[in-house]
Amino acid sequence: MRNLQVVKVNIKGMDGFQIQGLDRxxxxxxxxxxxxxxxxxxxxxxxxxxxxxxxSSPWKLNYKYWGVPQSHKVSGCDxxxxxxxxxxxx
Length: 90
Hints:
By secondary structure, the chain is mainly beta. The chain has one helix at residues 43-55, and strands at residues 2-11, 14-23, 32-36, 38-40, 66-67, 87-89. Strands 1-2-3-5 form a four-stranded antiparallel β-sheet. A two-stranded parallel sheet has the order 4-6.
């Protein structure tokens, strides 16, 4: 993953902050938009989570919580074929 950042989002009327960036599924694929399912109520909490994600090795990340951001369209050539199912973090 690269270019991970905290992005302000509004999903189904809920404002929050989400981790978004780019991911490459394999060496011969293109970079795809990716987002984590967690929606944080404030930017500081999202930044703390981003630091944990950046500190983890890619094979230790749980990819079931990652997918295409709600604001993007899914392409047939993308490795990630599902929009991320957002959930709120309290």
